Amino acid sequence: MKYRITHTTIYNYSQAVGLCQNEAKLQPRDFWRQQCQSSRFEITPTPADFRERTDFFGNRLAYFAIQQPHKQLTVTAISEVMLFPRQNTMDLDNQVAWEQVRDMLQESPNQIQTQAQSQFQSQNLGVELLDARQYIFDSPMATTSPELADYAKNSFLPNRPLVEVVRDLMQRIYTDFIYDPTFTTIATPLSDVLAHRRGVCQDFAHLAIAGLRAYGIASRYISGYIETATQPGKLRLVGADASHAWFAVYLPGSGWLEFDPTNNKLPHDQHITLAWGRDYSDVTPLKGIAFGGGQHTLSVSVDVLRLA
């Protein structure tokens, strides 16, 4: 499946901005399920400095600086991405219990390598486990708490396969929480989301991640897009799609398995990945510093177009 994604962000300022420096994570990354075939930026005003690199998590990052006065900043990222289906669906039938995964992630490096080779016959698994360990700790926007652990507890039945634990938690979040884009902001704490049972995809992903980490399970945050299906008989609305968020869990022997609690489904050929990290703060699509500007308004438009 091939898609063209056009993501446009417009800042309008009440006063002129003299200088701004920005970081954008708006270029899809490459991995086994996805290949970014092209990606480019259209930025107005034209940046005086523009550079690209990869960050700590392997995400594509673009830095740009604008050094001329401006009252509007427009950043558009245009990418074409090819998605590939998972060839081995047996990963979803993996029967490794969550307690065993938790214990493997808590072992010393030497024990991890020995256990990985003896149980899973993999030379690379020890390295994968060590990398996954960074995702079992609290992060700025996905912090565990007794309340979150208590909510997740019903999914963590003794000796239950980790895949079943995560699918159950995903389904419970989908059932128990109301999607309400007016209730939360980026700064809304998870305790409020849990107490009021309302939020958006970002909140639901953080909720699942924090609940899993409370039990020692490695879980990471994924930012990206999801194709919005057009209703029969109606024209497709350009720009009506939106940024999306979901999460992934590390399963020894299978790698990272993705789950979408907002839609109660496993991402397949409609989820396009931009970046991943510990939480939203690691993958913010666009952020920066502006000198001047006064008050500002922000508008975002995302178009996900399926190509023939």
From TrEMBL:
It comes from the Bacteria. Residues 193-263 form the Transglutaminase-like domain. SUPFAM superfamilies: Cysteine proteinases (SSF54001). Pfam families: Bact_transglu_N, Transglut_core. This is Transglutaminase-like domain-containing protein. SMART domains: TGc. It comes from Candidatus Methylobacter favarea.
